[in-house]
Description:
The chain has 152 residues and is mostly helical. It has one domain (6-137). Helices cover 66% and strands 4% of the residues. The model has no long low-confidence stretch (mean pLDDT 94).
Amino acid sequence: MIAERQVDHSAIRTNQSFTIGLLALAFVLNLPGLAGATGLIMLVSALVPPLGLFTRIYRHVLRPAGLVRPNVIRDNPEPHRFAQVLGGTVVTLGTLALLAGFEVAGWGLIAVVIGLASLNLFAGWCAGCTLYYWLNRLGVPGFKHSPGETAR
C-alpha cells in the first residue's frame, strides 16, 4: 500500500508568522543581524527539517499548550521547503546588502519576503510552491512532484 503524503499547514503558518514578525521587527529596529539570523533559521529549517526552530516551537510548545491546533492535509512537503529555501536565500542576500551599505536594496529584498510570506499566511497562496510546480511542469530535474500527486 502506498502511504499518503501529508503536511501540517499549522506548522507552515507558524513558520510564516515567526518569519514575518522577526523580519518586520528587524526592519523597525534596524537590526540586520536579526534579519540574517531569521534567514539562517529559514535555510536550516528547509534543508534539515528536524532542526527547524520555528517548527520545533510549534511542535513542542504551541501545539502541546493548545495554542495552535494541527491542520494536517494531503500535500507535498517539497514545494514548501523549496519556497523556504528561496525566502531564506533572499533574506540572506538582503542582509548581505545591508552589511555592504545598500540599505534600500537590502530592506527591499527583505520586504519582498515579508510580503510573500504574508500572502501565504493570510491568502493561502505560496509563490515558491507555484514556482516549484511550474518547474515541475517544465520538466526541470529535481522538481519531481506535481500538484495533487501526494501518494508515493
